[in-house]
Amino acid sequence: MFLVVVIVGGVVAWKLVDAGFGMKWLAEHFQKRTITESFHENVRRIASTQGDVLELATLDTEETVTKFDTKTLFNDAIYLGTTVAEIRTMVVYRYHLKLSDSWNVTIDNGRCVVVAPAIRPSLPPAVRSETMEKKSESGWMRFNAAENMAELEKGLTSILERRAAAPGKIQHVREASRLSVAKFVQHWVLKEPQEHTGNIHEIVVLFSDEPAAANAAAAAKLPATLTLEVKAD
Question: Where are the domains of the chain?
């Protein structure tokens, strides 16, 4: 009987210590807790961009991806419920152009008009895993919540890659990308002798997928992307 009392008392005492209720001195003097982290690297592929990439812009956004799995019987006559899996996370999209793609640069009366290659997404997007939140719900006759979430997680990268290339996403970064190209051209132009470039005071940037890129008259009416200081002779 005495042994039983000792064992039960010990278990109760440990529960109190483990839960943080009282007996602080016991936890400090007799309890040891060790937390370790490990990292394993398995490099599968290293590739060079061959100096062919000009990074233009980044876009940080919160993305929500939801997967619905609905089941019915007898041609939708009997509804068996819907399983819903949802992931919400911050995603960093990056955009670039290829320097080896076609460029068109014209200089006229101090105005430099640049038709640059189209904006491309840099894949895959970067997922900020520390911000990731997951939510899963099962329908009244469904028991596949874990499976549905696993499928959503597996396909998350490909979903975000498609979103990265969506016209709406590229439109978000178009003006920032335009300025990046103008800055790139500015640094290149300023290295050229003035007799080759003229007295440039404006840089106008278009991308090859924009309507004005194929219309010189429309391009001439566009505002300057970047205005340069003109040095007096």
Answer: 1-35, 53-227
